[in-house]
Write a structure and sequence with these properties.
The chain is mostly helical. The chain has one domain. Helices cover 54% and strands 10% of the residues. The chain has a three-stranded antiparallel beta sheet with strand order 1-2-5. Helix 1 packs across helix 3, helix 3 crosses helix 6 and helix 3 crosses helix 7. The longest helix is centred in the last third of the chain and has 28 residues. It is elongated, with a radius of gyration of 20 Å. It starts with 13 loop residues before the first helix and ends with a helix.
């Protein structure tokens, strides 16, 4: 996809599409008192509430499962599955990562709300944050992220590209949302470790592919 300046615009990750779609299709959760609040580094305060595990599964299941490649077996004169193909192993790892990302992102959409913003900062419904991000990229000569202006996708982009201004914010948000859906601290730790491991592996694979290209 090419943006208005003729530069190649980044495409949306599958999880960025699946999570808002799952949130839009979900029944409106019953109102409940928000027992927790989380203050991000910039001073924006989020309300935190429980998220049904079924909704997380729904978002994960919207990520397309990679198709097993085939090879032609000369001795049998037919095509057969080849799950050992290196591209398939990469596709499986990426699917696992995106499925986890979709679950976390739908949890952020449904499980958080913007409670307050400090002076000079914008709420999700304001256009100022979108203009601010686009202007910053224009000054730097870089391509801005594909920010959405409608529905649940708008809130997700506001949260990830504007409100959460540091890696620490993102980590704390991830941990808080996992804690809302998993039963024990041990489960939360295992989930975080698995998520980190998969993300690091994918970064290494992407780097290796870029260097080989």
């Amino acid at each position: 996809m090419v943006n208005g300046n003729g530069a190649l615009a980044p495409e949306l990750a599958p999880s960025d599409v699946a999570a808002p779609a799952a949130a839009e299709d979900a029944e409106r959760p019953p109102s409940s008192p928000r027992a927790e609040h989380l203050t991000l580094a910039c001073g924006i305060v989020l309300g935190i509430r429980m998220v049904a595990p079924r909704l997380l599964r729904d978002a994960s299941e919207r990520i397309p499962v990679p198709v097993v490649p085939t090879f032609f077996n000369e001795s049998k004169q037919r095509d057969e599955p080849n799950p050992d193909h290196p591209d398939y192993a990469t596709a499986v790892a990426r699917h696992r990562f995106e499925a986890t990302e979709a679950a976390l992102k739908v949890a952020l959409i449904i499980g958080t709300t913007c409670e307050s913003v400090p002076e000079g900062w914008y709420r999700p419904e304001d256009d100022g944050w979108i203009n601010e991000i686009n202007e910053a990229h224009e000054i730097l000569g870089t391509v801005p992220p594909p920010l959405r202006r409608e529905g649940k996708a708008r809130y997700l982009d506001w949260l990830l590209y504007y409100a959460a201004t540091s890696d620490e914010d993102t980590f704390i948000l991830t941990r808080v949302m996992l804690a809302q859906t998993l039963a024990t601290e041990e489960e939360v730790s295992r989930a975080l470790d698995a998520f980190r491991h998969t993300a690091e592996r994918l970064r290494d694979l992407d780097l290796a592919l870029a260097q080989s290209g």
